[in-house]
Each structure stands twice: as structure tokens, then as C-alpha cells.
């Protein structure tokens, strides 16, 4: 990707349904040139547009971050963990831990069970767990409180957007039995109420210029100023308050090692930051926030007696 592609990806991360005309206006291209760029990025498979449904809507409101210490190769361990429906994100990393993963479950007891099962995996020496208190920023999925009533048509739209976040309203309408205008109204409502977020997911090949780094922060005192500063940093794509060995968990994206150094030093300079531990995401094995989601599976989770 060149700099124009990177600018387009950033726009699509913010709004995956942004029109070609609006993309063209913001990056200084003609509409046809912008459309061609978007088509090429999507055709490459490096960028996909997905609808990510709020985990609470899916009946999985409890989130945890696990860092796994392995003995022997990490890749076979990652391959086994990637099969789990409650693991939407999994990455091979540098540092003390061979891989990190996110768990999304219905209850703390389910997280505890999942962590126990991870510890029992062949090749796993130990698991360090962080429980999420609150996700403050996420370029992939919706954050914050969510409360809404959904009918079968809403669920069908969510499923369709999960498969193709840029599907036209005409195509969406045909799948759910609405007019294009009716589909548009529903989609807008689902996005505005934070039931779903539609955005770009970048699949790192190891050959692109973009790198991702995670780090945990230990604080002295209140979290508000530090978290506020982190969420305003353009390179920061994920911020969560956590309980465990870190008070804040962060993911940053950069296009050079120098940029990563600048970001880390900027964070270390924030008043209230007392410690920072970082790791590089070397290979994202799984990033599928649709894991386990189908209309039938969600109904079963919400109404287990059926």
C-alpha cells in the first residue's frame, strides 16, 4: 500500500460504508480513481470490510485478554486456539509471551473455564489474564453501552453486514425482504445505536509497511487523563481499561519503527504513567469478530430453552 491507500484504509476503518465520492473528496482523487483503489484493496484480500456486532448484543459481554507463555513452537498452539469460537483475535507476538488472544464470553465463569482450557493445551506453560473493565476505543467494533430490541430482520441485516460490510442497500434489501430505503433506515439505526460497527479490517501479510504493537500500562492514580490522551492519538487503534498486571491495554499501528518509538515515548511521557511493557504483533493468526455468530446461534444463546 502507498500513502494514498493508507489514507483510504484509515477512512474505511472509521466508516466502512463511506461512498467512493466521499473518499475521493477526502483524499484528493477523482471518484473513478477512488473506486478503483478501493476495489483493488478489497480484491487483494489485505483489506476486508466487515460489520462487527457489539459483543453484548451477541450475549458475550465479558472480555478478557490472555498472554500465553509457550514451550516449543508457538504456531501449533495458535492453530489450536484459533479453532475456538470464543477467541475472535489471536496473534503471534515477540517478547516473553509467544502469543496473545482475546476471549469473549457470556460470564466471568465462562472466561475462567476458557483460561483453564488454554492452560491445559499442549505446549502452554502459563497464561496471564487481563479482564476488561471498559473498552474506550476500538477501530474494529462498537464500544460503550448498548440497549436495543432487535427483530428477525435486524438479525438478518447484521449477518449480511458481517459477511460484506459494503453490500449495497439494494443487495441488503433483497436478502431481508425490505425496500432499499427500508434497509438503509435499519442499517443506519443499527450503526447509530452501536449495535454494529462497519469498518475495514487490515490483514497483515508481513510484507506490508504497516506494523502493530501492543502494550500494557501501569498507572499511578486516576486513569482519566491518560486514557483520554491515548484515545486522541491517531496511531492508537485500541484502548481498554483492565484489571490485572496492567491498568490499561493499548494497540498502536505505525508505518515505521521510528513512528513506534515516537508513540511509545509519547505514552511514557504522559503524567500518571509509571510503567509500560510492549510486544510486537508478528503474525495475526485470527481476527474474526463474527466467530460463532449466526442467527440460530444467537437465538440459542439468548433463549437457551428453545
Structure commentary:
This protein is α+β, with helices and mostly antiparallel strands and 306 residues long. Among the domains are: 3-44, Arc Repressor Mutant, subunit A, CATH 1.10.10; 56-140 and 205-287, 2-Layer Sandwich (Alpha-Beta Plaits), CATH 3.30.70.100. The protein contains eleven helices and ten strands. It has an eight-stranded antiparallel beta barrel, surrounded by four helices. A hairpin with a 4-residue loop joins strand 8 and strand 9. The chain is globular and about 55 Å long. The N and C termini lie far apart (48 Å). This is Transcriptional regulator. InterPro entries: AsnC-type_HTH_dom (IPR000485), Dimeric_a/b-barrel (IPR011008), PF0864-like_C (IPR054609), Tscrpt_reg_AsnC-like (IPR019888), Tscrpt_reg_HTH_AsnC-type_CS (IPR019885), WH-like_DNA-bd_sf (IPR036388), WH_DNA-bd_sf (IPR036390). GO terms for molecular function: sequence-specific DNA binding. Keywords: DNA-binding, Transcription, Transcription regulation. One of its GO terms (cellular component) is cytosol.
List key phrases describing it.
about 300 residues; alpha+beta; Arc Repressor Mutant, subunit A; Alpha-Beta Plaits; two-stranded antiparallel sheet; 11 helices; globular; disordered C terminus; DNA-binding; transcription
Short description:
With 306 residues, this protein is of the alpha+beta class. It is built from eleven helices and ten strands.
CATH-level-2 architecture of the domain at 56-140 and 205-287: 2-Layer Sandwich
3D shape: globular
Amount of helix:
25-40%
Strand content: 25-35%
Number of strands: 10
| Largest sheet features | 8 strands, antiparallel, barrel
Query: What Rg do the Cα atoms give?
Result: 20 Å
Structural class: alpha+beta
Strand line-up of the largest beta sheet: 2-4-3-10-7-9-8-5
Termini separation: 48 Å
Number of helices: 11
Mean pLDDT: 89
Q: List the uncertain runs.
A: 295-306
* CATH topology category name of the domain at 56-140 and 205-287: Alpha-Beta Plaits
Order of helices and strands: HHHEEHEEHEHHHEEHEEHEH
CATH class of the domain at 56-140 and 205-287: Alpha Beta
Amino acid at each position: 500500500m502507498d500513502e494514498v491507500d493508507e489514507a483510504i484504509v484509515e477512512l474505511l476503518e472509521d466508516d466502512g460504508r463511506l461512498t467512493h465520492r466521499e473518499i475521493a473528496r477526502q483524499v484528493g482523487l477523482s471518484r473513478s480513481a477512488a473506486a478503483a483503489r478501493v476495489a483493488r484493496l478489497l480484491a487483494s484480500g489485505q483489506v476486508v470490510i466487515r460489520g462487527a456486532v457489539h459483543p453484548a448484543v451477541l450475549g458475550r459481554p465479558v472480555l478478557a485478554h490472555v498472554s500465553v507463555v509457550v514451550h516449543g513452537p508457538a504456531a501449533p498452539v495458535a492453530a489450536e486456539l484459533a479453532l475456538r469460537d470464543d477467541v475472535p483475535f489471536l496473534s503471534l507476538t515477540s517478547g516473553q509471551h509467544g502469543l496473545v488472544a482475546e476471549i469473549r464470553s457470556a460470564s466471568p465463569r465462562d472466561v475462567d473455564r476458557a483460561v483453564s482450557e488454554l492452560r491445559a493445551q499442549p505446549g502452554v506453560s502459563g497464561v496471564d489474564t487481563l479482564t476488561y473493565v471498559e473498552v474506550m476505543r476500538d477501530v474494529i467494533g462498537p464500544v460503550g453501552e448498548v440497549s436495543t430490541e432487535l427483530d428477525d430482520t435486524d438479525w438478518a441485516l447484521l449477518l449480511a453486514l458481517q459477511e460484506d460490510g459494503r453490500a449495497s442497500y439494494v443487495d441488503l434489501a433483497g436478502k431481508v425482504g425490505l425496500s432499499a430505503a427500508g434497509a438503509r433506515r435499519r442499517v443506519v439505526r443499527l450503526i447509530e445505536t452501536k449495535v454494529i460497527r462497519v469498518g475495514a479490517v487490515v490483514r497483515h501479510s508481513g510484507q506490508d509497511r504497516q506494523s502493530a504493537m501492543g502494550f500494557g500500562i501501569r498507572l499511578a492514580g486516576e486513569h482519566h487523563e491518560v486514557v483520554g490522551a491515548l484515545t486522541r492519538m491517531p496511531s492508537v487503534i485500541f484502548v481498554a481499561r483492565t484489571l490485572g498486571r496492567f491498568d490499561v491495554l493499548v494497540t498502536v499501528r505505525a508505518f515505521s519503527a521510528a513512528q513506534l518509538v515516537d508513540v511509545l515515548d509519547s505514552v511514557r511521557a504522559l503524567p500518571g504513567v509509571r510503567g509500560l511493557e510492549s510486544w510486537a504483533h508478528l503474525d495475526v493468526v485470527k481476527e474474526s469478530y463474527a466467530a460463532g455468530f449466526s442467527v440460530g446461534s444467537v437465538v440459542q444463546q439468548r433463549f437457551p430453552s428453545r
